[in-house]
Every structure is written in C-alpha cells, then in structure tokens.
Amino acid sequence: QFKSSVLLLSIAYPVGVGISVVARAAFWCTPSSQQSCSLTFTRVDSIDAVRSSLGNTFHVDDSGILYVRIVQPPKGRTGNPGWQLLEEPTQPFTRDGITIPTLSWHDYLEITSDY
C-alpha cells in the first residue's frame, strides 16, 4: 500500500505544445532484463488519473498546464525492469512521528517540449 499523500508538479506551457516526460535513473545505471534506467511517462486524460497513478503519467489540461505526480524512484534505477514505486524506496529518517525520506541521488525527471 502506498502513502496517501500526493505531491503534484504543475507547470504552465503554451496551449497546444507537445510535451514528453521521462524518468531517468542515475548515470551509472545499465539497463538489463533485471532493471530499467529510463521510462517514458504516459499521457492521461485527467488530473485525477495522474493523482491515482504510480507516478508514471502526466496530464496537460486545455489551458496548457502540465501535471506530474512527484514520487521518489528506487535508488539508481526506474524499475525491475518495469516502472516501480516502492512504499519506502530507501530507509527514511524518523523521529517523534516525523519522517524525512532519504534522497535518491542522480535520478531525475526530464520534461521536454517542442516549443
């Protein structure tokens, strides 16, 4: 079961511009039958679909706003080999009911447009 909190990134683009979103793993990742190092996100029809996804989708509304769910990927890869979203990808720091996720180094989202 995944945590119920959802963080969305919203960026304004000109209406009609082509957008792609790709998750990229650390530069030392080597793709194989056991792990993937990049994943192109799927465009979906609503913000709700992005919100309820595993974090591998995006939506662009009629006014040109891009919506992407921000998740922390597994350390150094994007999946085994498909997209993978773990409950806790790395051991977080927790004290007195407050949890801070551990940083996943070198993984990033690449958002490109044809604008």
Account of the protein in words:
The chain has 115 residues and is mainly beta. It has one domain (7-113). Helices cover 4% and strands 34% of the residues. The chain has one helix spanning 47-51; strands at residues 7-12, 19-24, 38-40, 42-43, 57-60, 65-70, 93-95, 98-100, 108-113. The strands form three sheets. A four-stranded mixed sheet has the order 1-6-5-4. Strand 7 and strand 8 (98-100) form a beta hairpin. The protein starts with 6 loop residues before the first strand and ends with a strand.
Unreliable residue runs: none
Sequence of secondary-structure elements: EEEEHEEEEE
Total domain units: 1
Q: Note the total helix count.
A: 1
| Rg over C-alpha atoms, rounded to the nearest angstrom | 15 Å
From the N-terminal CA to the C-terminal CA, the straight-line distance is 38 Å
Overall, the morphology is: globular
Count of β-strands: 9
> What proportion strand?
25-35%
Outline the biggest β-sheet. Answer: 4 strands, mixed
Lateral strand order in the biggest sheet: 1-6-5-4
> Mean pLDDT, rounded to whole units?
84
Specify the structural class.
mainly beta
How much helicity do the residues have? Answer: under 10%
